[in-house]
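User: tokens in, sequence out, please.
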């Protein structure tokens, strides 16, 4: 942060005027804020000249700047950092949030539509989910469909080629063997057991088993995420190349914010978007049974309604116990 900001504390009036600039700029439009608009704000009780003097001081210490002469002020990167540090208690918001997966998806779509932002959410790791039972279905003339079901009835489905003798009795025998291997095991533990016990599988299913082992390994090795509203970013910012938002972005955020709970902010200089300096990220980790799962990230222009978005996460606190 700018050294002058580190070494001085704003007086109450300058803080009030700075907060007003931030609120007016982060309203979805991102227009420079003139002193006359602040002076007219309800409860301000200061004249335009007083506001101009305060804004000049704020510009001198690096919190604001003027994009054009007499155009009003906009926040600097240091201004955003100072705002979040001094005006919010971010690490107390949505602490140890434990949502259901349906809530993650619903919140991502809701925030994206309400505020025209992009949401990127890491989904729970597939490999740790416990298998309750395995079913082998006669899918079509060439394939069996294997269902790995948990206690809630959610399944992971993989199609494999039928063996040379695809009779119902053979299918039942293969299903019985898979249940012996996988029942009450996590997916990754079941995969290890299946590889260790492969020689005990029905003999004419060995080729099918090899194929399924390979496809299940690929499925467990792939991270999952959802991205909602990426089109809003390209409509509102000037960016020369694709932002590549997805699993790799989530991995980047996790590295940056390792062990941080509650709401965190990544400002422009801490983001991997070298061709774009207009974005900011609001990120919250989430948990299941007190164990870390992944992160919920809001990627948006700095002019987005940041206070309202943070307020949305405040409303999640009753669900995070």
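Assistant: Sequence out:
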């Amino acid at each position: 942060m700018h050294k002058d900001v580190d070494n001085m504390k704003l007086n109450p009036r300058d803080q009030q005027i700075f907060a007003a600039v931030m609120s007016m700029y982060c309203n979805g439009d991102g227009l420079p804020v003139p002193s006359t608009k602040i002076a007219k704000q309800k409860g301000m009780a200061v004249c335009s000249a007083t506001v101009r003097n305060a804004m000049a001081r704020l510009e001198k210490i690096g919190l604001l700047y003027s994009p054009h002469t007499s155009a009003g002020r906009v926040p600097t990167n240091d201004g955003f950092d100072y705002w979040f540090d001094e005006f919010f208690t971010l690490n107390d918001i949505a602490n140890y949030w434990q949502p259901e997966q349906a809530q993650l998806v619903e919140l991502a779509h809701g925030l994206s539509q309400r505020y025209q932002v992009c949401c990127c959410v890491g989904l729970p790791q597939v490999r740790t989910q416990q298998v309750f039972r395995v079913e082998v279905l006669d899918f079509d003339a060439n394939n069996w469909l294997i269902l790995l079901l948990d206690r809630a009835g959610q399944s992971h489905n993989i199609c494999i080629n039928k063996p040379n003798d695809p009779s119902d009795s053979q299918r039942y025998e293969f299903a019985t063997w898979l249940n012996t291997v996988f029942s009450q095991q996590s997916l990754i533990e079941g995969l290890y057991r299946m590889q260790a016990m492969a020689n005990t599988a029905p003999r004419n299913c060995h080729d099918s088993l090899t194929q399924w082992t390979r496809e299940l390994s690929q499925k467990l090795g792939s991270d999952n995420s959802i991205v909602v509203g990426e089109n809003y970013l390209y409509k509102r910012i000037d960016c020369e190349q694709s932002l590549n938002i997805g699993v790799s972005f989530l991995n980047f955020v996790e590295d940056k914010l390792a062990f941080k709970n509650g709401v965190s902010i990544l400002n422009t200089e801490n983001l991997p978007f070298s061709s774009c300096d207009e974005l900011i990220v609001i990120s919250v980790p989430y948990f299941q049974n007190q164990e870390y799962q992944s992160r919920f990230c809001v990627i948006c222009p700095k002019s987005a309604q940041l206070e309202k978005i943070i307020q949305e996460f405040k409303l999640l606190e009753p669900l995070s116990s």
